[in-house]
Specification:
Layout lengths: L18 H9 L7 H10 L6 E10 L2 E9 L9 E6 L6 H13 L9 E5 L4 H6 L21 H13 L3 E9 L3 H14 L13 E5 L5 H12 L12 E2 L2 E2 L5 E4 L1 H4 L10 E7 L8 H19 L1
Amino acid sequence: MNDKTAIYPIGTQGKPWGEQEKAEWLAQQTKKRSYQEQVVAKIDALKDRFQVEQYGELNYQDATFPLFVIKTKNWDEEKPAVLVTGGVHGYETSGVQGALLFAEEQMQEYSDDFNIVVFPCLSPWGYETINRWNPDTVDPNRSFIQDSPAQECALVMSYLDQLGVDFLAHIDLHETTDTDNSEFRPAKAAREGEVNTNWNIPDGFYLVGNSENLQQEFQIAVLEEVSEVTHIADADEEDKLIGAPVDLHGLISFPVNQLGLCISLTNAMYTTTTEVYPDSPKATPEECNRAQVAAVVGALKFLQ
């Protein structure tokens, strides 16, 4: 595929997908790893230390995926609440495994100061099939909106609405991968009937903030903590990351409410989306997971 104008093999160029093209895409998806073994088993191992609840389930392609949330025990309404989400895009492995690693190694330490809520894997079908979309070709991280077309989003939104908590902060764990250019951006353009234009994939960690409430000192604190674990991405020759102008080294921002991104899920004062680069020759899977943990820890240290 051409780096900048890759043509996707499904559909007719210039024509948005209909149901036939979506069905053709879905038929090509296969299970590549186990949500039960790699995620649910790790959640089960945390039940003695934390409150684990099933908040819903997804039923896709004759498979059932129970959805879980992990919460600190001894909930105290006087303590600030912090939300951590992972696996909004199921293919972004360290978002899921980093959330679980944070719960396993760090969550208890901060439970005296915070009520913490962790959704480690919002999109388990995407995790198993290594996909950005759900089976309906819907991107969950553009679907945190009223009457969401993505079940993954609607179930989380419903749970949090019933929980009735005002969160102080929300950290959403993501990755930017080489497959964004080789697969997911070309697929998106084909679905929309548009011409694909890829961006430069940054080598390193960066953050995406809310352009309408950036909270730069908070973002800097997160980046500083992460820099102890892995390298921060430099801007490209146009002083951009993934096509967006940098606000500062390692930080870009978007109007997240307008785009329906996950960090618009609450009215939290402090929000950020992490972006780890797992394809870097300078990073390992373990380093990527620990960079996600460091991002959450950096946020909590700032808020203490």
